[in-house]
Design brief:
The chain is mostly beta strands. The chain has helices at about 1-15, 25-35, 135, 255-260; strands spanning about 45-55, 60-70, 75-85, 90-95, 105-110, 115-120, 145-155, 160-165, 175-180, 190-195, 200-210, 215-225, 230-240. It has one domain (about 1-260): Lipoprotein localisation LolA/LolB/LppX (outer membrane lipoprotein receptor (LolB), chain A, Clam). Mean pLDDT is about 90; it is low at about 1-20.
Length: about 260
Amino acid sequence: MRILFALLLPAILLGPSAMAETPEERGLAIAIEMDKRDTGWGDQTADMQMILRNRQGEESTREIRTKVLEVDGDGDKSLTVFDSPKDVKGTAFLSYTHALTPDDQWLYLPALKRVKRISSRNKSGPFMGSEFAFEDLSSQEVEKYTYKLLREEPLDGKDTYVVERRPSYEFSGYTRSTVWIDKDIWRPLKIEFYDRKDALLKTLTFQEYQQYADRYWRPDRMFMDNHQTGKSTLLIWNDYAFGTGLSDRDFDRNSLKRAR
């Protein structure tokens, strides 16, 4: 799919002389440019601290390790391993993300010493009990959505494109989302998610971006605020590394049992 979009991009960016430049075409061009600027990193590892906060303000913390393998022409493969608290230590989650079809997902439970395949048609389910859905954290392939540029405006002192996305995947938990995209680094600063009744459900903010390998931007913090439940989840990322030599073997089902 990326090849098709790459062929379309020059015509879209040329404007009226090449073709009518509608808000939908401009929104798609922005999405393609974002994807192009974040392609080619190969693999990524990082540590994550997940802080869950309930409506009463009580917090619980999980320590997590992540690995991701970039897949050309499809969604990425990822492995998530829990190091704490003690009751979930050693639990591992493997996911092969797909844009328009159900993801392939497996869960390893150390107490049972077995790998369980997860039914994943509904990507709107909560990720490990957090306010993030699986579809929020999976790789953001261009073909997952249709796009429309709504406007351009500043956000926290940064010039942004404001783009509406509507999911192409039939079983998404959202009718639409609105994304504020930093014009300088071509990464999202804020996303508002609307539920299946088209009511505002959650707001995700990205904070403290850092650049790696002189090209790839990653946030140190991601904060998801659920307006309907009063709950929130903060992800704090550390120790990003790219090009570490991971391969498909690091993301097969046996890798779940090897994860420690």
